[in-house]
Amino acid sequence: MSKPLLFFDTGIGGLSVLRESRKLIPNAPIVYAADYAGLPYGQKSERELAARVPALLGRLVERYQPGLVTIACNTASTIALDYVRSALDVPVVGTVPAVKPAAEMTRTGAIGLLGTEATIRQPYVDRLASEFAVGKKLIRFGAPDLVYAAEQKLRGDLPDTDIIQSALAGLFSQEDGDRIDTIILACTHFPLVGTELQNSVSRDIQFIDGSAGIARRILHLSADRKWPESKENGVFVTTGKLDELEPYHNALKGFGLQEFHAL
C-alpha cells in the first residue's frame, strides 16, 4: 500500500496547494489535516507555534504513516519548519512567500505582499527580499480576515467583499502603493479567493502564490514512488469538532476528500 501524502494547515487554505499537487500526482493517497482548534495561526506567538506544530505533526505522522509531509501554511512554515524537520523522520516540504518569482515578474519594481500578521513580520521574509528582490520595493500588509473570507467561500457562502477590498486598500494606501503591479498571496488561504481579489482591482495587477512550485517539489521528492492505478478516497482530519466540518463537505469532496476524522 502506498504511503499517503500529508498536507497540513490551520484550515482549508492548504487546499490551494493540494489542488496543484493533484494535477501532477492525481492518484496519490491524500491525508489533509486542519488544525481548526488552533485557528488562527497568524495571531499566535512564534513560541507557541514552534511548540504546537511539531507536536501535532508528530501525532499525525504516527497515526497515518505518510511518505511525505507538506506544511501548506506560510505562517507555520516560516516559524516552525526547522523544528518540524528536526522532529520527524520523513521528508518535509514547507511553504514560503513567492518573493523570487514576483521580483522576476514586476515591471514597476513595486511588489505587494498579503499575508497573516505573523508571516509579514518574520525575518525569513526579510531574507527572501534581500536575496531575491534587491532594488525592488516590497510593500507588506497583514490581512488575516482574508482567511475567513476563504473559509466562507468553501462553506458555500459569498466571501465578504469588504474583507477583499480592505486587504487591497491596505497595500495600495501605502507609500508607492499606486505603483504595485504584482501581489504575492503569502497565505495558502488567499488563492482560494484569488478570483475575488482579481475582480476587485481596477488596474493590471498580477497575483502570484507558491502552490505550483510546491507541487513540483512534492513531485520531485516523490519521483521514485509507485502510486495506485486509480484515485483513492482522501482523508480530512481536524483537531476541531467533526460536526463543524459539515458545511465544507461538498467543497472537500471536490478535492477528493471523502473521509472525515478527528485527531
> What is the total tally of β strands?
10
Described by strand count, sense and barrel closure, the largest sheet is: 6 strands, parallel
Helix content: 40-55%
**Contiguous runs where pLDDT drops below 50 for at least 5 residues:** none
- Strand percentage lies at 15-25%
**How would the global form be characterised?**
globular
Oligomerization state of this entry? single chain
Helix/strand structural class? alpha/beta
Strand order of the largest sheet: 4-3-1-2-9-10
Number of helices: 11
The average pLDDT is: 93
From the N-terminal CA to the C-terminal CA, the straight-line distance is 22 Å
Succession of helices and strands: EHEHEHEHEHHEHHEHEHEHE
Protein model, in words:
With 263 residues, the protein is α/β, with parallel strands linked by helices. Helices cover 41% and strands 17% of the residues. The chain is built from 11 helices and 10 strands. It has helices at 15-24, 46-64, 74-87, 99-105, 117-120, 123-132, 145-154, 161-172, 194-199, 211-221, 249-254, and strands at residues 5-9, 30-34, 68-71, 92-93, 110-115, 137-142, 182-185, 206-208, 234-238, 257-262. It has a 6-stranded parallel β-sheet, with helices on both faces. A 4-stranded parallel β-sheet has the order 6-5-7-8, with helices on both faces. Strand 7, helix 9 (194-199) and strand 8 form a beta-alpha-beta unit. Helix 1 packs across helix 10 and helix 2 (46-64) packs across helix 3 (74-87). It is globular. The mean pLDDT is 93.
